[in-house]
Design goal:
lipopolysaccharide transport protein A fold; 2 helices; globular
């Protein structure tokens, strides 16, 4: 198998894994939620289904298109298109010569990330490896049970484990928390 294809198979779940941490952080304020066990160190296999996979080797990108579903453990990510951008070691910036690493992953939606009773939705999601950020935009909603937080943009710092939800235009950040609902 060519190195780029091998990297694609390993990398395509990275956004789902990284973005999965979003819901645990934003509602809580703690990492004990359903998304808490996920991350780049997870040992569970990743399954990706799509209508099509196009690899643009010269452009260092791969595109999964049409009903994309990535599953790892209890977490499922759905989107219309998932694009993975790579950095090659021979460009002098990044991995060792001849190796590839993920630079960025973009999902066009709607994007939905589900894990047990937690759900994160938005119009687009971008994982930027160099900045260590996941950005979910476009009518973002995070929910656990009946508790829901909404905003226009969510920025999750992967290293710090900190999420910020921002308003947009005339929309303010909104939260609905039901007493006795999901913790």
């Amino acid at each position: 198998m060519r190195p780029l294809l091998r990297s694609i198979l390993l990398a395509a779940g990275a956004l789902a894994l990284t973005a999965g941490g979003l819901a645990a952080q934003t509602g809580a304020e703690q990492r004990s939620g359903a998304f808490a066990g996920l991350g780049s160190g997870s040992e569970e296999p990743i399954r990706i289904d799509a209508d099509r996979l196009d690899v643009f080797e010269r452009e260092n990108r791969a595109v999964y298109a049409g009903n994309v579903v990535a599953v790892q453990g209890d977490t499922t990510m759905r989107c219309a298109t998932l694009t993975i951008f790579f950095v090659r070691g021979d460009d002098g910036q990044g991995p060792a010569e001849g190796a590839e690493a993920i630079d960025r992953i973009e999902c066009d939606g709607p994007v939905t990330i589900l894990s047990q009773d937690q759900v994160a939705t938005g119009a687009q999601a971008v994982y930027d490896r160099r900045q260590g950020q996941v950005v979910l935009t476009g009518d973002v909603a995070l929910s656990q049970g009946q508790n829901v937080t909404r905003g226009e943009r969510l920025v999750y710092d992967v290293d710090a484990g900190v999420a910020n939800i921002e308003s947009g235009g005339s929309q303010r950040v909104r939260g609905l928390f039901v007493p006795g609902g999901a913790q």
